Predict the structure.
Amino acid sequence: MKNYTKSKLSRRTFLIAAGVGGAATAAAIAGRALTPEEPKTVASNDKRRGKGYQETAHVRSYYNTAKV
Amino acid sequence: MSSAVTPLRFHAPLVQEDEARAGYYALLGRLFYAGPDAQLLGTIANADEIVAGAEQSALASAWNALATAARAMEAEAACLEYDEILVGTGKAEVTPYASYYLAGTGREKILARLRGELLGLGLARSGAAREPEDHIAGLFDVMRHLILLGSEDGALQRQQGFFERYIAGSYPGFCVAISKSEKANFYRHVAHFAESFLMVEAEGLKVF
């Protein structure tokens, strides 16, 4: 199996050089502006919809940031 | 038995760059799901500039240009722009659905495979979202989620796989289509920033 850990440093180095590291502040600020509302009442009609899908914590976080 | 409770840690702490990546996916997902409100626009406008490193960073200049554009933009106009380009009456000028860029035909197959993958990840559309899962905003949100799971090898592998299957082949066409739109002004900058960021992503996930 490929040794991924070895290349981890080069990945970080690459990201920092590309500006992603320096972007941390900007990204965090922007991220905060869209902190989604707390997942409110998982509406009762979710059950009806939820045929194939499992309602996990992840289910609820999916699309949260995208929600207006 | 000790009564002290040590909270379980499910995820390893993220490295700073990965936090930034998650933040960018969150931001882009939001901007491609709907036009920005005044608060979001203001936050982008006032965000710190990215100071480019030794070499000029395309990502830095794209981000700084977006912030400048946000300063000159009214939320109402930005939302109108979004609707005109990506929603439209009848057919949208630019479709935000990745499968259109991934394949000429067989969109349903891609969508079915994606749904299966999401299920495997424990993800599904939230009740409020009616858009098919291959909406670019949804894909970005999946990436955000995968990044937040940690910076270990396994997590990176999952990110890499998902990115390659759904985003790598769709974002260039999508971003170019927006840039070409005559209606695009603020969203031209959003698309340019998205493109710059995703180019870094494509490379960064390869490096790993």
Notes: Chain B has one domain: 16-48+55-207. Chain B touches chain A through 65 residues (CB under 8 Å). Residues 14 and 151 of chain B are 6 Å apart (CA to CA). Chain B has ten helices and no strands.
